[in-house]
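Hi there, hope your week has been kind to you so far. For a while now I've been wondering how a particular protein folds. I'm sending you its amino acid sequence along with the backbone structure tokens. Could you read through the record and tell me how the tokens relate to the sequence? Take your time with it, there's no hurry, and the full record follows here.
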Amino acid sequence: MKNKYKILATSVATILFANAASAAPYAIEARSAAMGGVGTVSATYLTAPFFNPALTAIYRRNDDAGMIVPSFGGSY
């Protein structure tokens, strides 16, 4: 009987945490993730270090200042 509970507990834990083992990409911004991860093309001045570091050399007049706040997400 004890062995049966171990198998059941292992099965439940596997089902619950299987989603955490998926290979989801680390999305910096929703726009580039929605377009299939094309961050090198659509990156802004703030997201340039994540996608294309050479883009930080391009500075536009409307690129004053900004901050990226860490996000925590989950999926079901």
Summary: The CA atoms of residues 20 and 75 lie 9 Å apart.
